[in-house]
Design goal:
By secondary structure, this protein is of the alpha/beta class. The chain contains 8 helices and 13 strands. It folds into 2 domains: 121 residues, FAD/NAD(P)-binding domain, CATH 3.50.50; 85 residues, no CATH class. Helix content is 37%, strand content 23%. The strands form 4 sheets. A 5-stranded mixed β-sheet has the order 1-2-10-9-8, with no helix packed on it. 27% of the residues are buried.
């Protein structure tokens, strides 16, 4: 897609431009509020920069991992949600505060990666957070996060693969290892995830051999009455 640009800069009109960085709850709700507040202000332009072109309802992300919901149930296209906001899809590379501009890159998926400068009059930061692994050796490489849509899809695939491998595993120890799932974190996301995985593993036990089915059911019961930060 061709960008309206001048020497790498996305053209700025005479309007006052408010740039919101981040397409999560903070960024989208800020855009919705400003859209309503400034609806009668034609000299103001609102822009939102997001990595994705959709808003993800993250409180229900665990239901995607457990196959309780389809992906379309928890995503909403940003341009459909924000009727009077200009949406730019890309990665925020850096913020140039003295010159009041943001450098955005896009084109990662088609190997045409390049960047543009987006000038602003007012800047709203709503970039969210990243998962912290506390520098524990191997955790970042082995663990799965639960913050994005690809994370939930990957977790679901990993669980299904573990169930299938457990179905054919002869060693009791290896089978129990395959049927053990640990969730680190006892907040909202952790508790909802462990509950969803518990139900998913129980329902998936129907595909297992008798011995593997018994291991899965037993470990699921243990998680239900024990530590909310882990399940199997």
């Amino acid at each position: 897609m061709k960008c309206t640009m001048d020497n790498g800069s996305i053209s700025k009109s005479a309007k006052k431009r408010i740039v919101i960085l981040g397409g999560g709850f903070g960024g989208v709700y800020a855009a919705l509020h400003l859209e309503r507040l400034l609806a009668r202000e034609p000299e103001v332009e609102i822009c939102l920069v997001s990595r994705d072109n959709f808003f993800l309802f993250t409180p229900m992300l665990h239901e995607i991992a457990a196959s309780d919901l389809e992906i379309t149930n928890i995503v909403n296209p940003l341009r459909k949600l924000l009727r009077r906001v200009k949406v730019f899809v890309g990665e925020v590379e850096r913020i140039d505060l003295p010159n009041k501009r943001v450098v955005i890159s896009h084109g990662h998926h088609n190997y045409d990666n390049h960047s543009h400068r987006l000038e602003y009059d007012h800047l709203v930061l709503a970039l969210g957070s990243i998962t912290k692994f506390f520098n524990l050796p191997g955790l970042a490489e082995q663990a799965l996060a639960m913050k994005s849509l690809p994370d939930a899809i990957q977790l679901r695939a990993r669980i299904i693969r573990s169930l299938e491998e457990a179905n054919s595993e002869c060693s009791l120890g290896d089978r129990q290892s395959l049927l053990t799932f640990v969730v680190a974190g006892g907040g909202f996301a952790g508790v909802e995830t462990v509950a969803a995985l518990n139900d998913f593993v129980r329902s998936g036990a129907a595909i297992l051999s008798e011995s593997a089915r018994g291991d899965a059911a037993g470990r699921a019961r243990a998680s239900g009455s024990g530590d909310p930060a882990g399940t199997g």
